[in-house]
Amino acid sequence: MRIEILGTRGHIEPSAPGHMLHSGVLVNEVLFDLGERCFLERGPEAVFLTHLHADHAFFTEEEVAPLQVPTFAPQRWEGHPEVQVIRSSREAGGLTVTAVPTVHSISYRSNAYLIDDGVSRIMYTGDLVSVQRRYRDRLPEMDLVITDGSFIREGGLVRRDGRGRPHGHTGIPNLVRFFSPLAPRIVFTHFGSWFFHDVDGSVRRIEALSGASSVEAAHDGMAIEL
Ligand SMILES: [Zn+2]
Ligand SMILES: [Zn+2]
Fold it and tell me: Domains in the chain and their CATH numbers?
């Protein structure tokens, strides 16, 4: 399995060399999230979107002709009826892709994806408060998790709406604790503004969370071979 992390910047103004582009992860020939129009130039065989915020699905805020590649998302999008809803598993580009519903936004559904090529199994999450409860205990062991680096502080930023439903992003330390029993390697992407004050220092703060699992910060163009 060849993984390339195309973009590592969250939905924020700051950027830095190596952290310019919004979310996108290419796994073999299949793209996960489409935070930048230019990712289509990679000619993916299919696209799976974690959710329809613009930093993961640029076409929700930019005019673009109907997408010419099979595209799957947790919900429909009025402006692009060609986007299909994924509810369980799909085969694409030699990969088995399984949707795992997550908690992130009040207004948008969200999925993480389990990605299996028959040899390796990884998970890519978009923005994350948590995996939905009924899926939490059913996650398999994985070789690698790529997940949400929005907040370095414990607990991240999680708010509750009038009905008590949480939304936002949990913290990197929380994600390390959650995923460590499941994967020996955790790579953070989708960095929030905290990361950009001192990029080298931020990378070291992430790496310092290594313990049972190795913990790393991604950069735009980072390639991982499994
Ligand atoms: Zn985002
Ligand atoms: Zn989001």
Answer: 2-218 (3.60.15.10)
